[in-house]
Amino acid sequence: MNRIASRMLGFVLVFVLALVAVTDAAQERPIEVTSERMEMLSAPRRVLFSGEVVARQDDVVIYADRMQVFFREGEDSVARILAEGRVRIVQGERTAVGDTGVFHRDESIVVLTGNPRVYQGKDFVEGEEITVYLEEERSVVTSREGVPARAIFHPREETR
Amino acid sequence: MIRNLQIRHALALAIVALLLVVGGLVLKNLPRGPALEEIRAPLQDADLALQAFEYTETRAGRRQWTIEGDAAGYRQDVEEALIENLRVFFFDDAGEEIEVTLTARHGRIDLAARELRVWEDVVVRGGNDYILQTQSLEYRDANKTAATSEPVRILSPGADVRGRGMRMDVVTRQVEILSEVHALIAPQLFDEGTP
């Protein structure tokens, strides 16, 4: 069980690190966003995409109903990205889903909430909230009150 | 003989049909807005023609917007002014200038409706916040909004956005792209891409 849990946590960590590497790389390289509508808002300065939002960079694709990109005041860099509504983050066979996904650049964390799950094939881990601390290289799956965090892992023999 | 005539008629009909289709396509794809002749005619027929034109619209004694142009013609019967190479400056409710300017090759003011339509190489600059480019734009003074159904491009610090259709609140600078949004988000885009 420890081995399975360790593997699942490693899987979650690697996946979310890849996601954050993508959003972090957006500081240097363009991230391409398509959507039905867009609003530029101020105070705080941000861009709101809505309607079939798809954000791509390299092999990572983020889907959501709405996505807000918050910029630092007085700077061109992205401070925070908030994806809401049927959030789905896909990289190869790995997929993370939730109602909300937030990348906080200052804190170097990514938070998935709203029935968050991270899949790889049939395997998945879920909880109340999945948070990854980038600089400390650790992640936390918070359980619901009275409901433990859950990991479903199919041993290789079963998945064949 | 009859057969030859039928073939010739069929060919002629085919050519006519082809011309109609091509003509339809050309008409469909013609740029919107008045043709050059339409633009020149009011200038020539204007009751008042001006060079180095400046016009300020006021409400309750307060400036609403000011237009500068290289040339302008005014027709009194339809209360319409046509302006070439225009620059528009906007003011808030207190009459203070706000950091939004608009430039375009052609403009038409409906003085009765207090509406401004501009076309060809339309550029809106919102201070250091954004530059908007499109080919046609209508400004309504009643609600201080500008709108277009044409393709638009917005360059802002960190983002290069293209889409079709736009609504903009000139006072709050809130901009909304209405469809077909395609954005690139990266730092330094504004500096590199600023026309």
Automatic annotation (TrEMBL), chain A:
Domain of life assignment: Bacteria
Keywords assigned by UniProt, alphabetized: Periplasm, Signal, Transport
Keyword field contains Manganese: no
Record-linked Gene3D superfamilies: Lipopolysaccharide (LPS) transport protein A like domain
One Pfam match: LptD_N
InterPro entries given in the database record: LPS_export_LptA, LptA, OstA-like_N
Record has rRNA-binding as a keyword: no
Domain Organic solvent tolerance-like N-terminal: 32-137
UniProt gene name: lptA
The protein's name: Lipopolysaccharide transport periplasmic protein LptA
UniProtKB/TrEMBL annotation, chain B:
Top-rank lineage group of the source organism: Bacteria
Keywords from the named record: Cell inner membrane, Cell membrane, Membrane, Transmembrane, Transmembrane helix
Alphabetical list of NCBIfam families matching this protein: LptC_YrbK
Name of the molecule in the record: LPS export ABC transporter periplasmic protein LptC
Lineage start: Bacteria, Pseudomonadati, Thermodesulfobacteriota, Desulfuromonadia, Desulfuromonadales
